[in-house]
Design brief:
This protein has 272 residues and is mostly beta strands. The chain has two domains: 155 residues; 78 residues, no CATH class. Helices cover 5% and strands 32% of the residues. The chain has a six-stranded parallel β-sheet, covered by helices on one side. The protein has a five-stranded parallel β-sheet with strand order 1-4-7-10-13, with no helix packed on it. Strands 8-11-14-16 form a four-stranded parallel β-sheet, with no helix packed on it. Strand 22 and strand 23 form a beta hairpin. The longest helix has 9 residues. The protein is globular, with a radius of gyration of 20 Å. The N and C termini lie far apart (39 Å).
């Protein structure tokens, strides 16, 4: 079998690719643009939006790409607040969290969260190669930071590294708000997205007393518990965080609040 992107759009104007759940593709997840560096005066591809997508386990067969791939210039294009999880290491060929290929120019690529293998070649392949230019890439949070030399006329922040993928609250909310919206959740097969992963899609570190949103489990009688990995019996107030401190969380259908002052990071969730 070969491979291609789940979503491909070439010379498009004002297209919106938003709130998609893309999972287990042989190549990249979303492909935008065409033409490499061959059409330097073209404004055919422009004003596009690729935002709030959840892209999981791409590049399962092929390499030299990333979860979101751009090629050619596209003025006014925004690629923001996407959640990427599961880019493999560069063992058979180069892999990247995001890939801005030859000729990519005039795009904003901000506030993306990349939970990727530390063995990738680049966190974002936006280096000075192939006449890339005029890129704005800000506030990327990722599990690894590997970047090349910035292309001309570009403003690119070094990624903020969170190696254990326990994200600050702002980045957790990016993960939470990505992917399929509530009204369409039934179109995702349960074997692709379990109820716990739908309700609480990423790990989060938050200060005591912080309100934290979750998604509905779809059943108002369910209770959401946060506890260390491997927990099988759930009792309020009966868990320790990663530092051995006792914590618990009170929940209502769509909001959770840390109760004890000493609460810290939790990376496990159960519904039932």
């Amino acid at each position: 079998m070969g491979g291609c992107a789940a979503i491909t759009a070439y010379f498009v104007d004002t297209i919106k690719i938003t709130n998609n759940h893309v999972q287990s593709t042989a190549y990249n997840g979303i492909h935008l643009g065409w033409g490499w560096r061959n059409f330097t005066d073209s404004t055919t591809c422009k004003n596009n939006t690729v935002s709030n997508n959840r892209i999981i386990n791409t590049l399962t067969r092929l390499h030299d790409s990333g979860a979101i791939y751009t090629i050619g210039q596209m003025p006014g294009t925004n690629i923001n607040q996407n959640y990427v999880r599961g880019i493999p290491p560069a063992t058979s060929g180069p892999t990247y969290g995001l890939h801005n290929d030859e000729g990519t120019a005039y795009i904003n690529e901000n506030d993306n969260v990349l939970d990727i293998d530390p063995g990738v070649k680049y966190t974002i392949n936006c280096e000075d190669f192939g006449e890339k230019h005029d890129l704005t890439i800000l506030r990327t949070y990722a599990t690894v930071s590997k970047m090349g030399v910035n292309p001309p006329n570009s403003k690119i922040d070094p990624p903020v590294v969170v190696p254990d993928n326990v994200w600050p609250l702002t980045q957790y909310n990016t993960c939470l708000n990505s992917g399929i919206q509530e009204a369409y959740r039934d179109i995702i097969p349960a074997n692709l997205l379990s109820t716990p992963d739908y309700v609480f899609p990423a790990s989060c570190a938050a200060a005591a007393g912080t309100g934290m949103s979750i998604r509905s489990s779809g059943n108002s009688s369910n209770t959401v518990w946060f506890a260390p990995a491997g927990t099988t019996s759930f009792v309020e107030g009966g868990y320790n965080d990663e530092s051995g401190r006792n914590c618990h969380i009170d929940c209502c259908p769509s909001r959770c609040r840390f109760v004890p002052v000493v609460c810290s990071k939790f990376t496990r969730h159960e519904v039932g």
